[in-house]
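Standup notes
- DV: blocked on the single-chain target, sequence here:
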Amino acid sequence: MNRFLSPNSLMQENGIAFIRILIGIFLIYHGCEIFDAAKMREYAAWDMFKKNSTPSIMPYLGKAAELIGGLMLALGLFTRVASLIIIGTMLYIAFIIGNGKIWYEDQYPFLFVLFAFIFIFTGPGNLSLDKLIFKKKL
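- DV (later): unblocked, structure below
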């Protein structure tokens, strides 16, 4: 019980890895909408996209960023780069598409931004390709 209540970290590397993988799976799930033509047409019909000369490009870019960023995050591959992709995409969704209503209506994209910042600061945790690729040679 003392260890649980202490200010020291508790299985930090494994906990970060679990959260990273789960968030990556959520993003992959949302990014897979890129393969649903009807859903993508629905997004392209939104008012903020209709203003563009090619209204379908932004939804496809956003869904591709969610899919690619989610795959990279789930695998722990270039985790900080994946986090930057997610931050940019989700800030656009929260503040441009959602008009900055992050307290109620569009808080989920903003929460993805906050989680991505955690991975920038902490790294990928255990079970990541980053650990395999960038491990130090002794």
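- Follow-up: The longest helix spans residues 12-31.
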